[in-house]
Amino acid sequence: VIRRMIEGAATLPEWVKARSIRAFQLLAEAEAATHGARPEDVHFHEVGAIDSIVDTVGTVLALHLLGVDEVFASFVPYGAGTVWTAHGLLPVPAPATLRLLAGVPMCPGPPSASGELVTPTGAALLKAIVSSFGRPPHGFVPEKIGFGAGTKEFPKHPNVVRVTIGTVHDLGKPHANPQAVGGSPVAARPAAAP
């Protein structure tokens, strides 16, 4: 259903459709492996909501419209504690999130931010769009900075994500580096010829 919705969006560029569909495919594979099912049989609970589709497609479309060629992300904070889901109380990171983040460098989140810091949808989006995790590449020159805020409240820590768009001058091509506060995204655009 989600794939058909995205493929049927006539005005979306193919680049946006492909990466958005990839994120949901990765999510379906992780959920299927977690529950012993086939990806095509996965019923999305929390992630099936329209807002997850809008968040995913909107993020990929924004990268396209901003002319971002490559995305780099900080290490991903794994959170702590438990989270309530459609499947009951689960440890953080939730099993599907952890499967999606296999091979991705992780770090502890802020001590005051207990709970889920990366959702399965967020992890799938990172896997679908990020080229590499860690520090921004050498030669990255920040040009624009944006922030987004989530609705979950942490007592002593902001629930925000920062995106920095800039150019990697030693590579001559644009990049994006996503990082949550404690890790922030960064996006790069192509560098102008010297």
Automatic annotation (TrEMBL):
Positions of the UniProt region annotated as Disordered: 174-194
Pfam families: Ni_insertion
Record carries keyword Ligase: no
Keywords: Nickel
Keyword Transmembrane belongs to the record: no
InterPro entries associated with the record: Ni_insertion
Family matches, as PANTHER family: NICKEL INSERTION PROTEIN-RELATED (PTHR36566), PYRIDINIUM-3,5-BISTHIOCARBOXYLIC ACID MONONUCLEOTIDE NICKEL INSERTION PROTEIN (PTHR36566:SF1)
Protein name, UniProt field: LarC family nickel insertion protein
Species assigned in the record: Phaeomonas parva
